[in-house]
Design a protein that fits this description.
mainly alpha, Ferritin, 70% helix, 0% strand, binds fe (ii) ion
Length: 183
């Protein structure tokens, strides 16, 4: 008996999004390593935690696909793109990555709606809310950088931003505390 509850195209789209979340984690790891290398340990820490959150999103997709009786396809994760050119560029890239991901999430919402796959539509609403939060977080950071002077931010301004970000929560929990309900 066939117990697969996802259409072939929906399973393919969910698998692709799973890899996209892993890709976002790789991108943030590369930015975090770049920041740490430049001496911004606080900002690096923030992005290391955020990379972890993206891995949790990947797991949420993986578990959902399995839950619906479809096949999970683990594929190669694309390499992160170019390194940032400055702290300002780094956080602009961070924002752009989140916006691109929102576009991908919306596509999945639309696809599930058009298919009448209400279980997937419902599952995707969590990500709609999550992207709203992550875009807000990225916008707040860009606002702070703008006040600090953007590309012309002084060493002193970047120093205090780095200190602020060291402990800024971004809702990424420790791996052992994470569940699919609360990634
Ligand atoms: Fe994500
Ligand atoms: Fe994200």
């Amino acid at each position: 008996m066939n117990t697969n509850r996802l259409s072939a195209s929906m399973a393919a789209s969910l698998n692709a999004q799973m890899t996209k979340e892993a890709h976002a984690a790789q991108i943030y790891l590369s930015y975090a390593a770049w920041l740490d290398d430049k001496g911004y340990a606080g900002m690096a820490n923030f992005l290391f935690r955020h990379a972890h959150e993206e891995r949790n999103h990947m797991m949420k997709f993986l578990e959902y696909i399995l839950e619906r009786g479809a096949k999970v396809k683990i594929e190669a994760i694309p390499a992160p793109g170019e390194e940032p050119k400055s702290v300002n560029d780094c956080f602009e890239k961070f924002f752009q990555q989140e916006v691109d991901n929102t576009t991908a999430i919306y596509k999945l919402v639309k696809e599930s709606f058009e298919e009448g796959d209400w279980a997937t539509w419902h599952f995707m609403q969590w990500f709609v809310k999550e992207q709203l939060e992550e875009e807000t977080l990225a916008m707040d950071l860009l606002d702070k950088l703008k006040i600090a002077g953007g590309e012309k931010a002084s060493g002193e301004a970047l120093y205090s931003l780095d200190r602020d970000l060291k402990d800024k929560p971004d809702e990424a929990g420790l791996a052992e505390d994470v569940t699919t309900e609360n990634p």
